[in-house]
Amino acid sequence: MTPGARVQSSIEILDLVIAAARGGGAAADTILARWFGAHRFAGSKDRRAIREHVYAAIRLCGEVPASGRAAMVAVAATDPAVAAGFDGSPYGPPPIGAGEAPATPGVAPAWLADALAASGIDAAAQAALLARAPLDIRINRLRGGDIAIDNAVPIGGLPDALRLPSDTNVEQLPAFALGAIEVQDAGSQFVALACAAMPGERVVDLCAGAGGKTLALAAAMANDGAILATDTDRTRLQRLLPRAERAGVTIAETRLLNPGREAELLEDWHSAADLVLVDAPCSGTGTWRRNPEARWRLTPDRLARLTATQARLLDLAATLVRPGGRLVHVVCSLLDAEGRDQAEAFLARHPEWRGGQLNLPVGTAHGLGIRLDPAHHDTDGFFVAMMTRP
């Protein structure tokens, strides 16, 4: 493909991404994969260049762009190679007009940037949310001891974490085939560490998804005890058991829940868990390095629905914790509405509960919990707090 054809292809893909963001459609990665599947003439170098163009545009534009072309025109203003692609060639886009308006650069929609600022995330820390994410893995001690991987760098504070070059094909590594490593951001590993799960405990991972934290908890428990991993998303939850089998985890059981009727299906765990982890659905502001278009999807109304869901799930989790047990609230968000304020509101609703002590080697104290963010800790953004039942 010519440089112009790559730019035009990027424009077409961005139009699809923008439409999906406005209408709640597929994620950008999925749209790219579908586009490449339908345009097999694009070689590996073409795909790499197009992907870079698309994500450069997504990261650059804080507000949802008017069009894919407007987004790429904004990229062209800072990238001469992209500007040269607007060449009017047969497969390229028409030249940029003298008065043509580019999309407006920015970190996030104005209301969201203001909410982050009000939560103590300054302009530099907001910009860091859109940097390229590293590739981190967790060593799975259930499948062996030390792992030797070329160019791997240990991550401070995490004895079982390594950072790899971003272009590493993890699934081709022998250690992956053996189940000895799992891809998991350092921040997520710190969150699992904060749970302080111990061998022999009974644990509920209430919003387990595909099970990344379930597997980390099982390893911390030395595969001794019981973990109930639940979710309302069948597709995501179905991925957990094959992952658990590969990782050698035998203490995890999955249970699909019906939204709004979770308590009925968890009656057998009432006041029975030593630990309940609530990694609730959230805005994902801490994961923009991996999903930058997520900030185009968030609205004040959606944020309000998410915080209501989080509060409901925390109240549900409280019924599962045994006397003396603990509840860990986690969101991959840096908005206080989902983190600090949510934990404080829980204690206000449950005055008999107490804030717990988190023993983490990194993080910034924030309200009742600890916050991690890319600018200060080189991890995805997280808020984690522990509450204990007397």
First and last CA, distance: 65 Å
pLDDT under 50 segments (min length 5)?
none
Number of domains: 2
What's the quaternary structure here?
single chain
User: What is the number of E strands?
Assistant: 13
CATH C-level class of the largest domain: Alpha Beta
Shape: globular
CATH superfamily of the largest domain: Vaccinia Virus protein VP39
| Proportion in β-strands | 15-25%
Overall mean pLDDT? 95
Structural class: alpha/beta
Radius of gyration, in Å, reads 22 Å
What do these coordinates show?
This protein has 390 residues and is an alpha/beta fold. The protein has two domains: 104 residues; 204 residues, Vaccinia Virus protein VP39 (Rossmann fold). It has 17 helices and 13 strands. The strands form two sheets. Strands 5, 6, 7, 8, 9, 10, 11, 12 and 13 form a nine-stranded mixed beta sheet that branches. Strands 2-3-1-4 form a four-stranded antiparallel beta sheet, with no helix packed on it. The protein is globular. The termini are far apart. The model has no long low-confidence stretch (mean pLDDT 95).
Report a brief summary of the structure.
This protein is α/β, with parallel strands linked by helices and 390 residues long. It has helices at 3-23, 28-38, 44-60, 68-76, 80-85, 110-118, 123-128, 174-177, 186-194, 212-220, 234-238, 240-247, 262-265, 294-297, 300-318, 340-349, 374-377, and strands spanning 135-139, 153-154, 161-164, 181-183, 202-205, 226-231, 252-256, 273-279, 321-331, 354-355, 364-366, 369-372, 382-388. It contains 17 helices and 13 strands.
